[in-house]
Design a protein that fits this description.
255 residues, alpha+beta, BirA Bifunctional Protein, domain 2, six-stranded antiparallel sheet, three-stranded mixed sheet, 8 helices, 9 strands, 19% strand, globular
Length: 255
């Protein structure tokens, strides 16, 4: 999360080009949306599992980042991919995500049944409900995304679960009673899916990442070049980790 914010700052200063990052998490980590309360989390259960905790710059609800590919798209406001309003940019990026899945042999759809993105949904879990222009398969959410717009530019995060137990997140969230917990896991399994559940086999993360790159280039006309973090970005990451992303004032706030 610190790396994405450091790149956003650098892009805003025109010191780095628009950037797409593809990455994974080790160990697994629970990320909270920007405005989500820490009270949604069972901190003891999280610690017992040895999983991390972070708060995103972007909105939405909790995601357990484990067996997945995470993407971030970071660009100035005038860049075509993120230009226009929130829904316009969301839709444009969704076309690249849809092409990625098409190349992987998945007949997915862009959800059009909701007119809000980054909404404050009633549940604590991102994958319980698809928002506008998120990616679904037969009505079930496959890619969850959220966007932040700052003066420096636009940052959009997204998560594509590759395999594993989608219900694991339930055991690290707080519920007032077991009935509500059971309802939440039932709702999650009714409304979410991962790539392996569709294809019947597990794809290597590197294969999916290469397909993502090819899809965004072919569908959106981008020319993507490999890059590395600049020294200034690395220094800013270290500072952001110390002052923000490991600080309880940011991560554990009640909103």
């Amino acid at each position: 999360m610190a790396a994405d914010e450091a790149i956003l700052e650098s892009v805003g200063l025109n010191e780095s080009p628009p950037t797409i990052r593809l990455y994974a998490w080790d160990p697994p980590c629970l990320s909270l949306g920007f405005a989500q309360s820490i009270n949604d989390v069972d901190l003891d259960a999280l610690a017992d599992n040895g999983w991390g905790l972070v708060r995103r710059m972007t909105g939405g609800k909790a995601i357990l980042h484990a067996d997945e590919l995470t993407y971030s798209i970071i660009a100035p406001h005038q860049e075509y991919l993120v230009s226009g309003n929130l829904l316009e940019s969301y839709h444009r990026i969704a076309k690249g995500l849809l092409k990625t899945l098409e190349l992987l042999g998945v007949d997915a759809e862009i959800n059009t049944s909701h007119n809000q993105v980054n909404s404050n949904r009633s549940g604590a879990i991102c994958f319980e409900v698809p928002s506008a222009f998120e990616i679904t398969f037969q009505g079930k959410k496959l890619i969850g995304s959220a966007q932040a717009r700052r003066k420096q530019g636009v940052l959009q995060h997204g998560s594509l679960p590759l395999n594993g137990d989608l219900g694991r997140i339930i055991k690290i969230l707080s519920f007032s009673d077991n009935n509500i917990r059971d309802e939440s896991i039932a709702r999650l399994m009714d409304h979410a899916i991962n790539l392996e559940m569709i294809t019947g086999f597990s794809m290597e993360r590197e294969t999916v990442a290469r397909t993502f790159i090819n899809a965004f280039q072919s569908e959106l006309g981008l020319k993507l070049l490999p890059g590395e973090l600049a020294l200034k970005e690395k220094e800013r990451i270290t500072e952001l980790i110390r002052s923000k992303y490991t600080h309880s004032v940011w991560t554990e706030r009640v909103t």
